[in-house]
Design a protein that fits this description.
The chain is mainly alpha-helical. It is built from 11 helices and no strands. It has helices at about 1-10, 15-25, 30-40, 45-60, 65-70, 80-90, 95-105, 110-120, 130-140, 140-155, 160-170. The longest helix is centred in the N-terminal third of the chain and has 15 residues, at about 30-40.
């Protein structure tokens, strides 16, 4: 345990990432204990630490503070942290996670929006069909349109079919 805590605190990115991946593989009750160390450091941590910590924290489902930290990261000042938060929320199947992802569709950074659209599709969030459809009707960027179409298709909600057919006809 001490080695993992030292690894998480390391200035060496690869060592820190490896420590987080290892911690994600431990038993859920032990993850909760490990999360305390991560959360204690979160507020003063640099951007790299926050990015690396998010996938781990999203898996600590028994700790409300860990889950809240991931949700709050969707509003971080760093677009790279917001992007990592979107990716981490792919596996969190709570209404709060869905709402946070949907709210992030308006993020000013394209990379964040692409990560959000991907997360909504991979997680098959039916509640995102309407917001994704709206995004497609107002979006001009071809990467965003392609990713949005993929996400709607992956979600598989029949309500998206008319819009998907419209884009198919446009070519």
């Amino acid at each position: 345990r001490l080695l993992l805590e030292e690894g998480v605190a390391s200035e060496y990115t690869e060592l820190r990432r490896h420590a987080f991946r290892t911690m994600a593989g431990i038993a859920p009750d032990l993850r909760h204990d490990a999360a305390k160390t991560v959360l204690a450091r979160w507020k003063t941590a640099d951007e790299g630490f926050r990015i690396d910590a998010l996938p781990f924290l999203s898996q600590v489902t028994q700790d409300p503070l860990a889950q809240e930290t991931v949700l709050q990261a969707t509003q971080d000042s760093s677009h790279d942290v917001r992007k990592a938060a979107a990716a981490a929320l792919k596996t969190v199947s709570t209404p709060a996670a869905s709402l946070a992802l949907i709210a992030m569709l308006d993020d000013p950074h394209k990379e964040v929006r692409l990560a959000v659209v991907d997360a909504l599709g991979v997680a098959r969030r039916y509640e995102a069909v309407e917001p994704l459809s709206l995004l497609l009707t107002r979006e001009a960027d071809s990467d965003m349109i392609e990713k949005g179409i993929d996400a709607l298709g992956t979600v598989g909600d029949p309500k998206a079919l008319p819009l998907l057919l419209e884009f198919l006809q446009k070519g």
